Amino acid sequence: MNCRHGDFQSPALPTELPRPIRACRQSVCSFTAAGKVFYLLALTLASFFLRILYNGLKYGFLPAILSPVNRSNQGFIVPFHSPIPPTLRDLDALRNIGVRRVIMQALVTGGVTGAVIGLFRLAYDHINAALVHTIRQHDLYDPVVAAWIFGGLAILALLALLALRLEPLVSGSGIPQVELMVRGQMRMSWLRVLLCKFAGTLVSLSGGLSVGREGPSIMMGAAVGAGVGHLWGERSGQSLPRYLVGGSVAGLAAAFGAPMAGMFFAFEEMKTILSAPMLLFTGVCALAAWFVVQVLLGFGLVFPFAQQPFIHWTQWWIIPVVGVAMGVLGAFYNLILLRLTLWADHSPLMPRPLRVLLPFMLAGALLYLCPQVLVGIGFSTLQLESLPLPLLGLFGLLAVKMAFSWISFASGVSGGLLMPVLLMGSIGGACMASGLQSAGVISPEQTATVLTLGMTGLFAGSVRAPLTGAFLLLEMTGSFHNIPTVVLTAYIAAFTANALRSEPVYDSLRARCLDLAGAAAPSDKNGNDTDASGSATQLQK
């Protein structure tokens, strides 16, 4: 930062050569001698890599490296639609923006996103509590009650289908779509996406489907960010990447009360270029959203376990065991999820209305057959800490929950993946904790710690963002004293899934979005926009 004017002086972009080190020495005048040496070394390395970046963009080989999807075995390569990616142009624009303006933009983006996600969480909590109370007050085996239940689920399915008709982009999690928008390969109408995603996800969750709120919260945050950018007067699209990324960070922070996980998500999963202006922008967005949700609205920890003691150093062999097991389970989960979703995309046996109706009817059937897997009615992650369930029963619960999650997501309704993944991870952790307790390896007080490791491992094995998963669980549980064990478990799970050649779930879904858009483009004969990067309606197929 310039000490006199307060403007950003970020490293040089591909359009200019790096600045001399001598010009930056004024900003470290108050550092110690060791600090100066470290700063100069870091700046030298940064200049070296930026020269590589400049040469790559100049001679044309870098876009293929940064391309979001590259499946050489399928002949599927999606190049950028401009010589310089939108995020790099955005960083160039940020160099000329003052600190105060960046902070104000971030405060508005994060604050509004926190308010929207807070309203969403309040609405869902009240709706879910009312539905659970109503169900428990009636005899489910009364034919009239059963007719009301399945009739209501059919109406919810119709509303979910209507949301998809109004805005096809709200299908699924929303994270792959946001990543494509940041890379300049997809556009959206921010207000329509915000309203349809809000309503569509509420409908899916109210119907008992095994979907989550985190992906929709990220997409709603990105829509809020795009709206703030437009209302701020920056309508060219060149400056939208930072609003999309900042809104996404704020959405994750507000959904789980996890601002640090939101920051890691931006730079680890979304592959945002690390720079001082972007760090400031995303950091302020995350803190503003966290303040609204946690301080003003009073949401507490998502998983307030009673106790999470340390794992003794003699028990650390448990960490690789949990990491490997969750990595294998995450790879298997991704494999079936993608294959089932792709089959539903192209199968003539699954027209869109039937595809949407199926999980709602299945939720009604599970209400009678296996209510333990339904949110609000079945077991919660906190209950798994103290419930003395047999090991065989836990395995059966995990199998049913995983199958229901696959079917719910493959239907294409609005809903995320991460909350079901965390619940499945907690059930997997409960399976391991049950076996370890039976063998006398751990005490009952350490069950919550093993549950946390299981959730972290399955998240990292599926998403392949270990730092995001680790800090997400640390912030959701408040167990920062377990940082070493949680981070180590996350990395072991991610390494295991990579060793099995399993593609990260959001990479697969991002490729699916582009595949659907590319397949729909040639069939447009009405003169509409057939560019895969521009038309959201192509995804309706």
Distance between the termini: 48 Å
What's the count of strands? 2
The helix content, as a percent range, equals 55-70%
The unreliable regions are 1-42, 52-83, 521-541
Mean pLDDT: 82
Provide the structure class: mainly alpha
What percentage of amino acids are in beta strands?
under 5%
Number of helices in the DSSP assignment: 19
Q: Sheet with the most strands?
A: 2 strands, antiparallel
> What is the overall silhouette?
globular
Roughly how many Å is the radius of gyration?
24 Å
Tell me the strand order in the biggest sheet: 1-2
Order of helix and strand elements from N to C terminus: HHEEHHHHHHHHHHHHHHHHH
What is the strand and helix layout of this fold?
Layout: H1 33-59, H2 62-66, E1 70-71, E2 76-77, H3 86-94, H4 99-136, H5 143-166, H6 175-182, H7 190-206, H8 214-231, H9 240-256, H10 259-269, H11 276-296, H12 318-346, H13 352-369, H14 391-410, H15 418-438, H16 447-463, H17 466-477, H18 483-499, H19 505-520
Antiparallel strand pairs: 1-2
Helix pairs in contact: 4-7, 4-8, 4-9, 4-11, 5-7, 5-13, 6-19, 7-8, 8-9, 9-10, 9-11, 10-11, 10-17, 12-14, 12-16, 12-18, 13-14, 14-15, 15-16, 16-17, 16-18, 17-18
